[in-house]
Amino acid sequence: MSDLVHLTIDGKPIEAPAGTLLIDAVRKYGIEIPAFCYYEGLALQAACRMCLVEVEKMPKLQTACTLPVAEGMVVRTETPVVADARKAMLELVLTNHPLDCPVCDKGGECELQDMTFRYGAGEGRFNETKQHIDEKQWSPVVFFDRPRCILCYRCVRICNEGMGVAALGIANRAVTSEIIPNEADHLNCDECGMCIDVCPVGALTSGPYRYKTRPWEMDHIATICAHCADGCKTTLGVRNNSIIRANNRDHSGLNGDFLCVKGRFAFDYGASQERLQTPLARVDGKLEPISWTRALKTIAAKFGEVRQRGGAFGVIGSNHTTNEENYYLQKFARQGLGTNNIDHHRTGDVITLIDALAGKGGQLATVEDIYNAPAVVVLGCDLSHQHPMLAYQLRANVRHHQAQIYPITPGPVREDNQATRSLRVDKGGEVEALGSLAAELKQAGGVVILYGDPVKGDAVRKLVDFGESLGVPVKYVALVDYSNSRGAIEMGLTPELLPGMTPSNTGGMRIGQMLASTDLDVLWVVGANPLKNRAALAGKPFLVVQDLFRTETAEQADIVLPAGSAYEKNGTVTNVCGQVQMLKKGIGAMGTKTDLDIFALLAKEMKLDLGPATPDALLAEIRTTVKGYDVVLAVLATGGAAMTGVNGPVAIDVPVDAIHSANDTMYTSGSISRYSKALTSLMEYPGELYSGKSK
Amino acid sequence: MLYNKPDPQEVKVLTRRFGLENSASIDTYLATDGYQGFLKAREMTPDDIITEVKTSNLRGRGGAGFPTGMKWGFVPRTSPKPKYIVVNGDESEPGTCKDRLLIENDPHQLLEGMMIAGLAVDAHAGYVYIRGEYRYLIDILDKAIAEAYSRGWLGKNIQGTGFDFDVYTQTGAGAYECGEESALLESLEGKRGVPRIRPPFPAVSGAFQCPTVLNNVETYSAVPSILRDGGAAFASLGTPRNGGTRLFCLSGHINRPGVYELPMGFNLLRMIEEVGGGVWRGKKLKAVIPGGSSCPVLTADECDLAMDYDTLAKAKTMLGSGGVVVMDEDTCMVKAAMRIMRFYAHESCGWCIPCREGTAWLRKLLIRFHDGGGARSDIDLIGDVARNMLGRTFCPLGDAAAMPTISFVEKFRGEFEAHLAGRPCPHEHADHLALV
Ligand SMILES: Cc1cc2nc3c(=O)[nH]c(=O)nc-3n(C[C@H](O)[C@H](O)[C@H](O)COP(=O)(O)O)c2cc1C
Ligand code: SF4
Ligand code: SF4
Ligand code: SF4
Ligand code: FES
Fold first, then answer.
1. What's the CA gap between A417 and A412, in Å, rounded?
2. ipTM given for this complex
3. CA A496, A498, A501: angle at the middle one, nearest 5?
4. pTM
5. Which residue pairs, CB below 8 angstroms and at least 24 apart, start in B375-384?
6. Which of B352, B360, B389 is opposite residue A47, by nearest beta carbon?
7. Which of B182, B196, B82, B69 lies closest to B129, judged by CA?
8. Yes or no: is domain B333-421 CATH 3.40.50.2000?
9. What is the whole-number distance in angstroms between the Cα of residue B199 and the centre of ligand 5?
10. Looking at the domain that runs over B26-237, which CATH code has it been given?
11. Do B365 and A173 touch (CB under 8 A)?
12. From B345, B365, B384, residue closest to A175, measured CB to CB
């Protein structure tokens, strides 16, 4: 911690670490210095001149956004001179501003409106013609209206520094200065919409959201993104039971201000025309609508009959369903159906890591660790594509703490741009290659190691041995794909493990075996699409599928049940690092039921006693019975992330062949993305890993 | 080529070779004490060189008049980073046209000044940034540089002294703002020409984030004679704290416009009357902009003063870049203010709100006002908008736009009021100003 310096603000004594910018130092004391161009964590601009304050012994007003605090400094933020300067800046910036607030998307949550209300003059004196430049569409999701732009350069910086994309620049000069996209008239970029998010005014607007609503007509519901495993917090803007916007409105959570293209725009899949709104049953070879009652009764009867005669069940769970749903599903399978044939698509080797770490010094890393570690190694993953938020935190770490980073990948990745050193190795050779970095990592004094699906089984053990040999704190993340892959493993959706990574010590079929089996009587697939790249099942089981869409798997089902999406339910999910967060129901979708409700109704129909089936009750049960999940409820309930504990040893044989990432890019999301117009309309869709394009 | 006849009152130090045959060639230069200042400096310690420059009371000729020796003293000589010498040859201040003559007629003098600065701060490379429109000067300078290399006055181990120095030329791309030192450095590095946040100042972190001395062409050109003949000799030519001579660019409604090298402190009225041959067409003097378009205007009554930094500061204006713009009694001061603002509105880099929006507003307002569309309240508004910019912009360009505007309204309010009667403008012309 640097030394504290003492200064006086508006007569109040305050203190702050030396080097703190004045604008940050005062915030803690409830003093606001207005700012447009200042944006925490990005390069300083001193361009808007809104933050001018009086500093004793300095002849001119000073920009608080660039002024480091100093011992004995005397600052005044509320004098007539300062008030006059603020008023002047607002009058000036409004001269060419269209003041089309009544139809501007930003109206009601616009920083320029707020500042004008608070610090501006009652009337303008500008009597000349305003400069007009027509609005431009830069991509399906990003629109730019130059007249509304106040040239704070936040968008340019977030794209360049935050995203590492640098798709935005400035053209022309003087009053004709204009933000321009990298392809002159359109964008070729991540399409993450971060520029829209940071824009203080309505200059950058979101294609899907434009002119849909006034901000105050929406309900704002804080939940977790439904796509990748990073677990970004997002605020759904909901009106008339539909989601019209997603952004992390209060910048809280693991992601701060960040959302990637999927988190920001791909909430629309649930509203797809192709969404299932009624159960379907196979009649004369074709799927036909039936009622929920009939569907559930049919399934219950079938399940009951098969159980009765000791027939074989197979259950395939999901990487997207909540911990509560997963927990209940495995209970249903194991206790209700008496089968241990339960599995899900495994996308990374978490289990070996947990086992290998048992009794060792190494630990699991949190998202915060990725932002703070002196050195970060990424093995076998195109991080900017596959883990956009982790990659964002990593870039911030380099910017703010000069972290050393080392991508060890089969092809070029964006992290190369900031890397101390990049190593190119074929898949499987990552851990071996890592050896050459030992000295540097030791020197760095602390390392976070992220590894993708090529690193599994023995390679993970070797990796942990390597980490232990460094003699500095080492933390790990086993990279997995989807919003609740971790929860699927830890809630017992594998034949090897019961909840809490407790060995089941009973045999059971894995996905591959279930699909290849000719002996199954029932195959129950929940929120998964195992037949995506496969012509058909080997056997002829009674196939029940719970999904949002008629996926390849649903097409072959005997009964399809329309399920709710992650935005339509409550519960918890565990992110890639093992941090648990809470989902909040944003909307409901006509004709659907959440997976948990479906399970509960089936259990009732079958007269099974599996305990209470509400998200709250199940979370309580998980917190008390599942190892590592004794998380603090208040943390979750207030929108925080609670880290789960390390659970090793896990004495089982990990079937490494079953582990493979779906290799989604930043524009794809398994079987979901094709139902998102926002994603499929992008020229960058579907994107390619290790293409060098993301550089 | 020279553009005006020399005047007998001139004191020719920097311009002493002007008019000599092949004045730009290294042979002429060497035959007339060329590179002697460098050789002398090579025998001195860096501290002694800086002291000599301090003694000369040389102040920066680019506009701000910062003491040159002091500036060189700010460079951390022991920094492990390379240090750079950068020449500001962007010369874009309306009314200013002296650096071009120095480069055209005596490029080696500039190179020698850079080399001496290099000795003073332990720099071994220099960049000359020249405004894009001065393309022909780059050719002249490149030729001089090539000559210097081939004759051993640049490159490795210059004249066996063990000192290495390289010089590169770089063209600007047509922006006034690129004359501002930090924007120049951005532009030099190939980036958009917008200024940098200071501190750090160029002396500590300049070109390529390395310690850098950045001076005007004329400033460097004064250095060889200071080393050759001693700082005291140079200082004695001017007034206290305002050493030496400087190149004044006389333009506007004057009989003998041109660039004249006169001692610091030369009386402005005499400059107009005697050196410039008086106001043209037998007209009376109305006003003078004493140091380029960024300086507050002086009324005819205020012009009996010594042209040095301190005297002009007392008169609430500036010596600036030495561009003396003379306006006769027929000049429309509203139009003059309008045309100055047209320049700044065009040249504002656009980085900060007050300058970008303020200059654009003032430009439109002044054009409307001059065209006869003004209201009485506009007169105060012009001043108000300019004052709202003043002291609040990112770089001094905003002030440079605001200051003259405020002075025009304050000192010639009557003329603004006269325009309220409507068009046409009550004045005959204001077309012959060297202003844009
Ligand atoms: C808008 C603006 C334009 C400038 N243009 C020039 C220029 O064209 N030439 C120049 O030498 N200095 C110019 N200056 C001054 C430089 O910033 C800098 O002070 C000067 O080059 C330093 O050299 P000196 O100390 O030798 O004067 C300009 C300053 C501003 C604010
Ligand atoms: S578009 Fe928005 S974020 Fe970008 S410079 Fe303009 S106002 Fe700032
Ligand atoms: S990084 Fe992952 S969790 Fe975050 S917004 Fe993107 S897809 Fe969602
Ligand atoms: S005052 Fe501001 S807009 Fe004007 S030139 Fe300087 S930085 Fe650019
Ligand atoms: S916030 Fe300080 S100048 Fe913009």
1. 10
2. 0.94
3. 85
4. 0.96
5. B375/B420, B376/B417, B376/B420, B378/A127, B379/B409, B379/B413, B379/B416, B379/B417, B381/A125, B382/B337, B382/B409, B382/B416, B383/B409, B383/B410, B384/A125
6. B352
7. B182
8. no
9. 16
10. 3.40.50.11540
11. no
12. B345
Ligand nearest to the CA of A485: 3
3-class DSSP assignment, residue A166: coil
Q: How far is the centre of ligand 4, averaged over its atoms, from the C-alpha of B339 (Å)? A: 19
Instruction: Return the residue in A22, A37, A42, A49 with the most chain B beta carbons within 10 A, the one to mutate for interface testing.
Output: A49
Number of continuous H segments (helices) and E segments (strands) in chain B: 17, 11
pLDDT averaged over consecutive 10-residue blocks of chain A (695 residues)? 88 96 95 97 98 97 98 97 98 97 97 97 93 97 98 98 98 97 96 98 98 96 98 98 96 96 98 97 97 98 98 98 98 98 98 96 97 98 98 98 98 98 97 97 98 98 98 98 97 97 96 97 98 93 98 98 98 98 98 98 97 98 96 95 89 95 97 97 97 67
Q: Which one of the ligands is nearest to A86 CA? A: 5
Provide φ and ψ at A597, rounded to 5°: -65, -40
Classify domain B245-328 by CATH number: 3.10.20.600
Q: Sheet containing B298-299: which strands, arranged edge to edge?
A: B258-263, B245-252, B323-328, B285-289, B298-299
Chain B closest CA to A27's CA: distance in Å? Answer: 23
Domain range annotation of chain A: 4-92, 280-347+484-669, 350-479
Query: What is the CATH code of the structural domain delimited by A4-92?
Result: 3.10.20.740
Phi then psi for A339, rounded to 5 degrees? Answer: -120, 150
Numbers of helices and strands, H then E, in chain A: 22, 31
Q: Which amino acid is at A186?
A: H
Count of residues in chain A: 695
CA–CA gap between residue B119 and residue B50 (Å, rounded): 10
Q: What gap in Å lies between CA B411 and CA B287, rounded to an integer? A: 10
